[in-house]
Write a structure and sequence with these properties.
heterodimer, A: about 425 residues, alpha/beta, Rossmann fold, two-stranded antiparallel sheet, 15 helices, B: about 400 residues, mainly beta, 14-stranded antiparallel barrel, 3 helices, 21 strands, about 5% helix, about 55% strand
Chain lengths: ~425, ~400
């Protein structure tokens, strides 16, 4: 009898223990604030359209800034966001018809094998860039179009020379803004200008087609105004200091490691110009027409070497030493100043336009600065280190899926603050990063 | 009858002790069912062999030989709600299995000298987080277990004063697993597993003072024990191209199990009603850093030092017992403990906070020799924090229920 009571007591206790001791999860109270998320459009370039690993491909698109924002806005009443995805199995394509990059072993000119970004296929999926205009019924709402510049949003012939727009354009004489407005957007995000400033930066300042601040401002305002006139609210993003991207920070200025005989040879060659070389690390040689009669000099600390430099030529063919780097591989201090001045001009314009049309503003400079300095997010340290930093794709320019999620969280924070919304952030660690063999 | 108990004894002895986190820090306070029923207090009151743990000085006042085995399955669950994504993640902890086993002997009847052997599990935890949880790069699983073996001598100077002490030999093991933020070609994350056995030495001493027939005092000191892992095994499951960055090898580490000073009071109102109060002061300040020293370092695999910065804390416990009949006793109690974990240092392996708890117990004297005690413990804790090291920011909700049972045989 007494034992029975104990038995029952024990049994009840265990049942009680098993059933009642799970804390209850309450669903968060989300709120749209003054956002009408019904029809969201993204307007930008490859940085919002999911271009990464130097190509447009399906997994990149699925994890684009546009898609990630679209997904979160669906939580506060957005209709299903639409992107024209390329085939899931496609190797992707950049504007030159090359496939996306992956990390794999590659043998250099010395026969040394190491992990490097390599193309997943010898040829890209050119069907992506050969597509004629889209003839389906519904318009896509992801206008993150690789290569699209701010002024081109208003250009009626963009589809004729940008295949990434052509594949979603309703005709080959339509301006992107027309298709954008035709989706009847209720909310928009604009992340334009990256294409322009990066074109200049990636060519080492050798191609200067940076729009003047005035032209940029006019085009940007036109876009914002047209959307505003349709009653849409939105969020705009300023531009970061793009020279903090891994593309500009991976090859050190003093990465010329020399043995004694090479050092002596170079000292003999360039000694007359006042440049001497020592065993160990030395500053690379670059072309600079203003330097002296020969137009070459050693690079200074603070000047940036670009990831476009063919490293095999450096290792085996004396590029950067006997044959100094050409201008297209170097962003010197004057070029950096010009670039930063222009970016600041664009950003001032973006902020002013945001004030005029009551738009939320995402300041991307602090975000990229944080990556540049390194920061810890849910136990993971992210940085702008090439490959190992975690947030950039293998082209060293575009964010990968994790990076896009981190950036999307900045957009979400700006929207929440400005529009009084409660939209949850994304768990960036749940997205894919660099894959290792 | 006694042989049956022996079987149970050896069964329990064979279990690896471990229990989810529900005591302050990773301390587990389930060392006696009578004390558990009375709010985990009883330092100033000789109860049974479990007093070898609660106060080695008090067992000098026993007048019997006894064997005592008990088991307290712990069901603890943690829900973590991330502050930015607003998503919830849960632990899938296995049932905690703290046990205790005591043998208390006198060489002859009414002898002033008692000998005892205590085996118990005052620290331990297994925290297993659900797959893919947001803090996976901080921890996916921590299993910490320690068995304390305490041979004890207790001596009664007179009817009022007794003291006792025991050497504590502690053996245990620790396993820590987490994911690493590098991905295989198929997208899976790499992971690290650190495991090792630990060993430590300490002592437990106590004084019992029966001031009057009704009122008694107890004072105990349990020393800090440093559980040292000297030859742990570090295993890394990483993509082949990173094998050289994360070489499998050995590591060393150590974890301090803190000293505890306890003052206990007991008052017998009458034959039936007794009340006890315990005040613990726990030296958690010893846990300032969790360090892992790898035998082989690489640029990717550096020794780590994580600040814990625990603080010393007080815990207050109290309870009553009431004898309904000769055979039946009911007990109830509760307590409050401050958390040793400061803001900024809350981790998913010890999502600790200030806590209240309640307990309930039943005792049954089956016959002259055999008695059975049962207890039930319940607590819930809520702690919001942003960890300074990982930047994990959210709220931990913990609930724990622990029913316990023990059998005592006296002769």
């Amino acid at each position: 009898m007494k034992q029975n009571i104990f038995f029952i007591f024990a049994l009840c206790s265990i049942l009680f223990g098993a059933s009642s001791c799970k804390p209850k999860y309450s669903e968060p109270n989300l709120s749209a604030g003054d956002v009408n998320a019904a029809r969201f459009v993204m307007i930008g370039d490859g940085h919002s359209g999911g271009y990464m690993d130097d190509a447009l491909y399906c997994d990149g698109q699925k994890n684009s800034l546009a898609e990630l924002l679209g997904e979160q806005l669906e939580l506060i009443g957005g209709q299903s966001f639409t992107t024209r995805f390329v085939n899931q199995n496609s190797v992707g394509a950049n504007p030159f018809g090359q496939s996306r990059l992956k990390l794999a072993y590659k043998e250099d000119c010395n026969g040394v094998s190491s992990l490097s970004p390599v193309r997943v296929a010898t040829q890209g999926d050119i069907s992506i860039i050969a597509t004629t205009t889209f003839s389906g019924e519904a318009l896509y709402r992801n206008f993150g179009i690789p290569g699209m510049r701010t002024t081109q949003v208003l250009s009626p012939n963009l589809a004729q020379f940008n295949p990434y727009f052509a594949r979603i354009a309703s005709s080959n004489t339509v301006a992107p803004i027309e298709d954008i407005l035709a989706t009847e957007p209720t909310f928009f995000a604009i992340y334009l200008g990256m294409e322009e400033v990066l074109k200049y930066a990636r060519t080492g300042g050798s191609v200067d087609d940076l729009p003047s601040v005035a032209d940029f401002t006019t085009a940007y305002e036109e876009i914002a105004q047209q959307l505003h006139n349709q009653g849409a609210k939105g969020v705009v993003a300023t531009l970061p200091n793009v020279t903090q991207l891994p593309y500009f920070r991976t090859i050190p200025y003093n990465g010329l490691n020399l043995d004694a005989s090479t050092a002596n040879l170079l000292s003999a060659v360039f000694g007359a110009l006042g440049y001497t070389f020592n065993v160990g690390p030395n500053s690379f040689m670059i072309e600079d027409p203003d330097a002296n009669a020969f137009g070459v000099r050693q690079i200074n600390a603070g000047e940036l070497l670009l990831l476009s430099i063919p490293l095999d030529s450096v290792k085996c063919n004396q590029m950067g030493s006997l044959f100094p780097f050409r201008n297209e591989f170097v962003l010197n201090l004057v070029e950096q100043q010009y670039l930063n001045m222009t970016i600041n001009g664009y950003n001032d314009a973006i902020r002013t336009i945001a004030t005029t049309y009551n738009l939320a503003v995402v300041e991307t400079a602090p975000f990229y600065q944080q990556l540049f300095s390194g920061f810890t997010y849910n136990g993971v340290t992210f940085s702008a280190q090439f490959v190992s930093g975690g947030a950039f794709s293998l082209d060293g320019i575009h964010l990968n899926a994790k990076g896009n999620a981190l950036l999307a969280n900045e957009f979400i924070r700006a929207i929440n603050e400005h529009h009084g919304a409660v939209i949850p952030a994304l768990n960036a660690n749940a997205f894919s990063g660099v894959l290792f063999p | 009858m006694f042989f049956k108990h022996l079987t149970l004894f050896s069964f329990l002895f064979g279990l690896i002790s471990s229990s989810p986190l529900w005591g302050q820090g990773f301390q587990v306070n389930f060392q006696g069912q009578k004390q558990q029923g009375m709010g985990l207090a009883g330092t100033a009151l000789y109860q049974d062999g479990s007093s070898l743990f609660y106060n080695p000085g008090s067992v000098a006042f026993s007048n019997e030989n006894s064997a005592n085995v008990g088991f307290t399955p712990v069901f603890a669950n943690v829900l973590y709600v991330d502050s930015t994504t607003m998503q919830g993640y849960r632990t899938e902890n296995p049932m905690g299995r703290p046990f205790h086993a005591y043998g208390l002997f006198q060489l002859k009847d009414s002898s002033a000298l008692k000998l005892g052997l205590a085996v118990y599990t005052p620290f331990g935890s297994t925290v297993q987080w659900e797959d893919g949880w947001i803090g996976r790069f901080a921890i996916t699983r921590l299993s910490l277990s320690a068995i304390f073996i305490q041979p004890t001598v207790s001596y009664r100077i007179n009817d009022k004063l007794g003291f006792g002490g025991g050497l504590v030999v502690s053996t245990g093991s620790v396993t820590l697993q987490r994911d690493l933020p590098v991905q295989f070609a198929n997208g899976d994350y790499a992971s690290a597993s650190l495991s090792g056995s630990a060993f430590g030495l300490g002592f437990n001493i106590g004084v019992q003072f029966n001031a009057t027939e009704k009122f008694s005092l107890g004072f105990t000191y349990r020393s800090q024990i440093n559980m040292k892992v000297s030859d742990g095994e570090a295993q890394f499951n990483v993509p082949e191209s990173l094998n050289a960055n994360f070489p499998d090898g050995t590591f060393s580490s150590s974890l301090p199990l803190p000293q505890v000073v306890t003052l206990g009071l007991a008052y017998k109102f009458n034959e039936k009603l007794t009340a006890v109060v315990d005040i613990n002061y726990v030296g958690w300040k010893a846990y300032d850093t969790l360090a892992f020293d790898y035998a082989v370092n690489t640029p990717s695999l550096q020794d780590t030092k994580s600040a814990r910065n625990y603080e010393n804390i007080f815990a207050f416990r109290g309870g009553v017992s009431y004898g309904i009949t000769e055979a039946f006793t009911v007990r109830a109690g509760g307590g409050y403990g401050r958390t040793p974990v400061q803001n900024g240092y809350v981790t998913p392996e010890t999502p600790d906070g200030n806590r209240f708890y309640g307990t309930f117990g039943l005792g049954c004297q089956v016959d002259q020799k055999l008695s059975i005690d049962a207890s039930l413990f319940y607590t819930q804790v809520q702690r919001a924090d942003t960890n300074l090291e990982t930047n994990l920011s959210g709220t931990f909700f913990t609930k724990a229920v622990a029913p316990g049972l023990s059998i005592i045989y006296k002769w």
